[in-house]
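A favour between colleagues. Tell me how you read the following sequence-structure pair.

===
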Amino acid sequence: MNREEASRLAKDLVDKMTLEEKASQLRYDSPAIPRLNIPAYNWWNEALHGVARAGTATVFPQAIAMAAAFDEDIMEEIASAIADEGRAKYNEQSKRDDRDIYKGITFWSPNVNIFRDPRWGRGHETYGEDPYLTSRLGVRFVEGLQGKGEYLKTAACAKHFAVHSGPEAVRHKFNAVASKKDMEETYLPAFEACVKEADVEAVMGAYNRTNGEVCCGSPSLQKILREKWGFKGHFVSDCWAVRDFHENHKVTRTPEESVKLALENGTDVNCGCTYLKILDAVDSGLLDEKYITQSAIRLFTTRFLLGMFTKTEFDDIDYSVVDCKEHRKLNERVAEESIVLLKNNGILPLSADDSELKTIGVIGPNADSRKALIGNYHGTASRYITVLEGIEDYCEERGINVLYSEGCYLNGDNVENLSNGERGDRISEAETVADRSDVVILVTGLDETLEGEEGDTGNAYFSGDKEDLELPSSQREMIEAILETGKKVILVNMSGSAINLSDAEDRADAVVQAWYPGARGGKVVADILFGKVSPSGKLPVTFYENCDDLPEFEDYSMKNRTYRYYTGKPLYPFGYGLTYGDCRAEKIEVVNASAEEGAEVKVTVKNNGTATEDVLQLYIKAEDTECAPPNPVLCGFKRLKIEENETVEVTVKIPAKAFTTVDEEGIREVRGSHFSIYAGFSQPDKRSEELTGAKAVKAQAELKK
C-alpha cells in the first residue's frame, strides 16, 4: 500500500470521528473506538537492540557495539530479525486483546543522535560520534525494521530530533545552542538520511530546546523536516516533553498553551498526558480543530501502512521466531564483529594447547554480570552467557582450570556492606586468584546503572551521565592490585562509552573493549580470547585519556570535539582496532571523481598475517577551503574477510556529499576541487600510525569541472 492510498483511507476514517474521538487518538495510549471497529493501540514500543521491555526477545549487542562492527549489511539483518520478533509478539498479543505498552509495532528506534561528548550517559544508545557512520547504519536499521513489502513490517522512528546529547540532569529545561554550521555538518545529517533515503515512518522530538525553540514545538525544526526534507510520516514527542513546555522551559504558561504549541508545530503523538487537555484548548479558543484532524490522519496513515485493518503477509510470522536459533546465531556474529582489540603484546590469542596455560584467573565485577551484557532498553533473553561462563565453557572442554573472584563491587567500597577494611573486601581474594593463575583476565567497566538515561539508572547524582572518564575507585584499586602481582593480565572492559584505560595500555598485556555485547556476549569474548574468532571491531568513538581539554559538557559547539575536530592526542582514536591478522592498504586509485556522482576508489590491500575480517576505511580532506573540518573525515568503509597472505583489490564508493563542505551560514556546497583521500584500516592520524605500525595510503582527487 502506498502512502497516498493509506492517507486517503485514513482521511475517510478520521472524517467519521467526533472531535473527542480524534483527540483521543493523539495519545500514546490511544483508546478503542468500538463504533468504528478501531481497536486500542499503544504507540510506545522500543527496539534499540532487540524488542525491549516486553518479555522474551533476542538481546543483541548494544547500539554502540553494533556501530563498532562498521557493517551496514548486518545492521539491516539485525533490524529485520527484531521486526520479525516484534510482529510475532504483536500477532499473539493481539489475538488475546493485549494492547498494552511495549506490545505494538511502532518502534521508537533508532537513536541517531551524535555521541559528541563521552560523558553523556545515553551515548551507548547511538552509533557513535561520526555523522556519516551514523547515517549509513541508521538508514539500514530503518530499512530492516520497516521491510520492503507491500506494507510496513514495523514502523521505525528516528530520535531525538534534534541536537540532543546531554546533560541528562537538565534535559527538561536545557537550551542546546548550535551554530548553523554544526547543525548542517554534524547534528542533522543522520536524520536527513533516515528521512530521504530510508523513508522513516516516524521522528521523535527531543526534550531540550534547540536554539531557543522547544524541539517538540519547533517551527524551525518542522520546516527542515517537512518542507526541506519532505517528511510525510508522524512526529512523536519524547515522554512528557510537552509538559516540560510550561513546567520547565517556561515557554508557555498552561498545559493548554503547550498543547497548542505542540500541535501547531507538528507533534502528532503525545507521549505523556498533556494532550488530555486538547478539548480544553479547543473550547477556550486557543486551538483550531484542523490541527487535531491533521495529526489524526497522519497517525491512521501509519496504521494503514502497517496493515492494521486488513490481512497482511506479516500476520503469519510465527512466535517461534522469538529468540530462535537463527537469531541467536546472528547475535553472536554481531558480537564477534563489534569487539575491539585495543592492545596486544602478543599474548592473544591464548592457546589451549599451551602447556604453560593450566590455570586462568577471571577477576572483576563485570566477569559474571548479566547487566554488563545488555546495556539499556533491553528485552529478556532466554539464556545469558557471561564472560566468566563463556571462559569456563571453553576451558572445561580443554582441561584448563578457571578460578574466579568478583574482585570488587562495581561502584562501591565493598561487596558486603558490613565489611570495614581499609581495602575493598574482595581484593585479597582477587590477589589469591591471581597468584594461582598463569594468566589473569580482568573484567571491568560499567553497566546501565552507571551510564544511561535520566530517571532510568541508579546513578542518581549524575542522572545517568558520567562525571569523568575514570572507572569507579573500587575498580581502580582492584586493577592496581592485580597489575602489581606481576602476572600476565588481559583487561576486558565492558562499557558503552570511552573510559580512561591508560594504566591498562601502559601495563596490561592486552586490552579488549567488549561494550555491552548482548545476551550471549560472554561466549564471544571467550572465542576471541582463545582465537576461535579474530577481533575486527573498530572504535565508533574517540577514547580520550581525560576530559581536561574537552569543552564544557553543556557546550554544543563541535570545536575540539570528536575525531574530526579534536586537536589533542587521544588514547585510542576513532576507527582504531587491531586484529590477529595484519591487513594493510598498499595502493589507492581514485576513479572518475565528480561533484554529481561522487567517486569510486580502488584500494589494493594485503593481509600479512592470519585470516581475519577487518574494516577498510576511507577518509577525505578538502584542501582548498577553510570550511572543511581540520582533520580528514570518514567518507566510506567496507568490511572485508581476508585470508592469510591474501592480496585483494577493493572498490569503495564515495558519495557526492563527501566532496561538499559547510560554511558558517550552514550552506553545504562543493568548494574548490582538490581533495586528499586516504585508505587504511584506521584513521590517517599519527596516533593510529603509532598504535598500528601502519600508514594509510593517500591519493589526490580533482573534481571534474
